[in-house]
Amino acid sequence: MQFASANSTERTCKLSRRKFGQLAAAAAVGTAAESSMPLGAAAESDAKPFSDAVDHPISAAVIGCGGIATHHARVNFAPWFQIDALCDVDRRRAEMYRAVAPDAKTVCSDYRELLERDDIEAFFVCTPDHWHTKVTIDAMRHGKNVYCEKPLTFSVDEGRVVRQVANETGRVLQVGTQQRSDPKFQTAVALARSGRLGDVKRVTVAIGGGPSGGPFETADVPDGLDWDRWLGQAPMTDYLAQRCHGSFRWWCEYSGGKLTDWGAHHVDIALWALGWDAEKSIEIEVLDVVHPVAMKDGWPTDRQSFNTANRFTVRCVLPGDVELIIRDNAADLGFDNGILFECERGRFFVNRNRLAGKPIEDLRRIPLTSQERTGIGLGNEAVSHMENFYRSCHGHAVPISDFESHIRHLNVCHVANIGLRLGENLRWSAAEARIANHPQANDFLVRPQRSGFEVV
Known about the structure:
This is Gfo/Idh/MocA family oxidoreductase. Residues 59-176 form the Gfo/Idh/MocA-like oxidoreductase N-terminal domain. By secondary structure, this protein is of the alpha/beta class. The chain is built from 14 helices and 17 strands. The longest helix is centred in the C-terminal third of the chain and has 20 residues, at 403-422. The termini are far apart.
């Protein structure tokens, strides 16, 4: 079985009301695989109608004015959110962002200037990964609802802090894992959990490999960039253009590479479909790993080159001997990005471009029932990821990408990454939030933090 591959460049899906109407119409005649189940985020019967959202957008600030923030401003924010403030430690990027957010009245380089603003109700955290948790918890502690891009956390311990602050403050926290609002992925999850195909035995997730690059030359810090603040919690180091902005993800000081990039999406969907019990342990076996630089005790030996893994295969064994395979690609299975579910009575595939396999074709003849559709905690009304956040801010539902499940699933990616860095097999005890078989590996659950930038 050959499967079409997804574009390796991450895109944010906007599923408009018009598009959902088209899917619903297609479902009536059974012409689209995903249309057999146009699910959406949970919404109660008294949810605000679309016209109210147009009339009353929520005032928000954008923290981090790079590519994903620009995409949101162009196609996702309106009519739900009015962007009134912009912040980026690179002043040039914040000023350039005015082209897509011309109504923003405030531009600054330190988000703390916006925390006390009562007129700003929500924060969109679109910074590099290593700043996500710090900005998110500060915003929640100042009464803001938060939409944070994935990955929400940089380490397992940061997940503990986020949980504590979110529960203490009662703020709405939506994660930008927008695949949860995509009918294709929702159909895959509901089918896997329906029991129609028997038990799921194996899920293979292909997320692409990271690049090699370097050694890069140090340079002067560009005018307008606060390099010290960009680094934040990460160690002080000389400026390299390749450490910053578009290529930060390939440095373990700022990100988890592909494991917390595409892994934060596809592993999330896989574990959502499996209904993973967080109280159980997971065996994580490193079958293959190649880093672009030599590693010693889990740390890169070259400070001038990309250092996150660029080839890997990880086998995770969940309770019931269910296998979750996380790979850079699955070319031998016919795809390089996506999720393959193998069940007792059939298999099927999903990525952002395609939902395929005989069990999907069978849905045209015997659609999923209402009970099977709502069995994963979703209502029958399909809404976009951004509208879901808007509704959640108005108290109508827990966000579809809730922080609890996101942290639980992302921790598997974090621990798998630790295994890759050490080249060791690990036993992750989620209930105890520790690695049971490797004392040294537990040191990586909490990252070193520079004074003044701590996540506490």
